[in-house]
Amino acid sequence: MIKPTHIEHIGIAVSNLQEAIRYYEEVLGLECYAIEEVADQKVRTAFFKIGDTKIELLESTDPEGPIGKFIEKKGPGIHHIAFAVDNVDNALKEAESKGIQLIDKQGRKGAENLNIGFLHPKSTFGVLTELCSK
Ligand code: ZN
């Protein structure tokens, strides 16, 4: 079993990063501690800490990218949930051995220098699931 240690972050697709940041800072009172562009995923991300978990806001930098397409299809909202695991590559193998469809066969570099890999929502009851480790 994968046995994640905690929810690392929740990924939320937004149309306008600055407006969304204002809500998280001025209404919720969380502090945006990092803004980072992840070029190969065609997103700009903003991070907030809340306990051991983070909120990851995702703004598309390209309408053809994954977040651009998601927003066009479904509108802004929760995009994925990310579980912290000890080792992404092992966790992906474990999931595959149990018949889960993978998006990533192997871990790759994500935001914040984490090693990440995605499970396909078809296999995870509609929730795009990210696994990540340091
Ligand atoms: Zn994520």
Describe this structure in words.
- This protein has 134 residues and is α+β, with helices and mostly antiparallel strands.
- The chain has a single domain, classed as 2,3-Dihydroxybiphenyl 1,2-Dioxygenase, domain 1 (Roll), CATH 3.10.180.10.
- It has three helices and eight strands.
- The chain has an eight-stranded mixed beta sheet with strand order 2-3-4-1-5-8-7-6.
- Strand 3 (43-50) and strand 4 (53-60) form a beta hairpin.
- The relative contact order is 0.20.
- The site of zinc ion has 6 residues, from strand 1 and strand 5.
- Zinc ion binds at residues 9, 11, 56, 80, 82, 130.
Q: What is the domain total for the residues?
A: 1
Number of strands: 8
Low-confidence stretches: none
Sheet having the most strands:
8 strands, mixed
Q: Which architecture would the CATH scheme give at its second level?
A: Roll
The CATH topology assignment is: 2,3-Dihydroxybiphenyl 1,2-Dioxygenase, domain 1
Distance between the termini: 19 Å
- The SSE order reads EHEEEHEHEEE
The CATH homologous superfamily: 2,3-Dihydroxybiphenyl 1,2-Dioxygenase, domain 1
Which cofactor or ligand species appear?
zinc ion
What's the level 1 CATH class? Alpha Beta
Percentage of residues in helical conformation: 10-25%
Strand arrangement within the widest β-sheet reads 2-3-4-1-5-8-7-6
Global Rg: 15 Å
Supply the number of helical segments.
3
Describe the global form: globular
The pLDDT mean sits at 96
Q: Would you tell me the structural class of the helices and strands?
A: alpha+beta
Q: Provide the β-strand percentage band.
A: 35-45%
